[in-house]
Amino acid sequence: MILALALLLSPVQDKATIGWKFAKGDTLRYELTQTDTSSVAGRDMSRETTMGMAMVVSDVDDKGVATIKVTYDRMKFSMTGAMESDYDSERDKEEPEDGFGKLFAAMVGQSFTFKMNARGDVVAVEGYRKMMDAVFDKIGEDALPFPGMQDMFTDDFAKKMMGQSFPKLPAKPVAKDESWEGKDELEMPMMGKVALKVKSTLKELREKEAVFAQDSTIEKAEGDDSSGAVVEVTDCKTKATITWNTDAGRLVSSTWTTSLTASANGQEFTSETKGELKLAPKKK
Fold it and tell me: pTM here?
């Protein structure tokens, strides 16, 4: 009797359903800001990139997979070190002179389409390669920052990159301090095939928001014999904090720091990336 009474009086542990809620016609805008600093043979380099992405949901199928059109409406890129660049589409009205500036300027207004389910899995990308071919045609081969760089910008490449931009979400409702895990294998430029492991833990549950942490590692995939791999990863870890609107079913913000130690052609280098993906006001 006492035990039953205690169970009745004890608070019920709340659980959160963390997932995308898509509806045809939804419009969202996100800004991705990323700062990279690296050191190679005592030489320091830094890059800062900002991308504005306007997203329109054109369809949602019976399994909850949304078809989303992405249009880049803002680009900002700066780089110091071995090469210099400084471009901001909101500031600069004339065409930049350097290759990176030309590349980012040509991407403003360009679009492609991807499909994503409620768990944040990007299941398909369409039109990314076509978009980038148009960008490269516009700026001309002579303006490319690196020869042959256009070969890496395929639909499959975009699918993997988009898949890493959005957090992996739990398959079922989760309680505070509960964790879920995910893993994937990616074919990375110059790195070959790598294994990605992600562990997420719900840290805080508010009235309409959930805050969770993600810890990720990347290492060489077992059995990978990629002869074209130039970069060998020694250590790569990411720590992220994600705020999710459980009522609206959308990402509010994601901030992360990635630390990398690797070597290329016998030369060790380190890098640190700090990034944020956040819901932002729509451009007028």
Answer: 0.86
